[in-house]
Amino acid sequence: MAEEIISATNLISLLIQAQEEALELIKSGSKSSEELRLLILGAKSDIARLTKQIRLVSKEERQKVGPVVTQVKRSIEEALGQLPTRNVSKEWIDVTMSGIRPPQGHLHIVSQAIIEITRIFERIGFTRVRHPEVDWDWYAFESLNMPANHPARDEWETFFIESSLSFRPLSRNPSSRKTRIPGRAQDDNQHIVLTPHTSNGQVREMEKKNLPIRMINIAKCYRRQSDVSHVPMFHQFEGLYIDRSVSIGHLKGVLDYFVKQFFGPQRKSRIRPFHFQFTEPSFEVDITCGVCLGKGCKLCKSGWLELGGAGMVHPEVLKNGGIDPEKYSGFAFGWGIERTYMMKAGTQLDDIRLLYSNDIRFLEQF
Ligand code: DAH
């Protein structure tokens, strides 16, 4: 059946009418630009349908319609292009809805322990101080009664630094140190170490000449050890109290106070005779096991767990720090932070290196 011929004028006026309706719809802002494009220019739209009807216009008149179709489509595209990509004003937003929470981190367990230990000692008048973690052999060993080649040094698996390096740790009192180092007149012959313990802070603190001393020195320590119970970099906290007439009774009082504050009121401490070069007498400090509270169990065997070393500061060490041992006395103690914390948390870590492996699944638990 032959298709009906339509006049160009008729088709043009239908196209213009469709264009007006389309522009009206775009202006109303009721739909997104994607929806509008589909509705106005899509395959099922009026404009598409009218465009197809060009072939029903007589050949002579067709060229009048073509430019109109192009113009109609262009004006619609332009209007669509001016729309904002998302019409937020018409969207429904629930401002009370909770957002997506970013994952919240927390301080590393060792940082938490450092803060807690500092606060406990601050409450009884100790001040946290800092001393070099790369220091002269003098402060780490010699001034603590351990001259070069002394066998007691074997306890500390020390990292020594080539003394040809231009780096030199600062000393508060270099001239006094020079004269006091037996057989070592020149600083350049002195070894530099990565401090294997925080006891290097003892003589350094004494050199400040600010008595009485109530210091808590917390720092990183380094030893050439790495196994399930050792990491080459760990932390210690060192207490030092120097005043007139300081006795073992004061030391025991401070130890008891710390143990009850940090581990809980039901835990007890005891001191056991031991030997360190820099304290006389020297002790090892134990605390009651957190599981059996001292009775003895599978975990602790004897009921006691070893915390670390302590003692009354050796008169020679006081002298090395420029303090008269006839007038002053003091006590010191030094323990590992990681170990102390593990004893509190009751965490049975089968490998202490986990603390520094940066495994978030492990760290999240504390
Ligand atoms: N510095 C010792 C160590 O690392 C621990 C220590 C023992 C510190 C006795 C002290 C002390 O202050 O009095 O093994």
UniProtKB/TrEMBL annotation:
Keywords from the named record: Aminoacyl-tRNA synthetase, ATP-binding, Cytoplasm, Ligase, Magnesium, Metal-binding, Nucleotide-binding, Protein biosynthesis
Keyword set includes Phosphoprotein: no
Catalytic activity: tRNA(Phe) + L-phenylalanine + ATP = L-phenylalanyl-tRNA(Phe) + AMP + diphosphate + H(+)
Highest taxon in the source lineage: Bacteria
Domain Aminoacyl-transfer RNA synthetases class-II family profile residue range list: 117-343
EC number: 6.1.1.20
Any one GO MF annotation of this record: phenylalanine-tRNA ligase activity
Name this polypeptide is given: phenylalanine--tRNA ligase
Keyword ATP-binding: yes
GO BP annotations, alphabetical order: phenylalanyl-tRNA aminoacylation
Pfam short name (any one): Phe_tRNA-synt_N
Compartment(s) of residence: Cytoplasm
Gene Ontology CC terms, in alphabetical order: cytoplasm
Enzyme class: ligase
Predominant location: cytoplasm
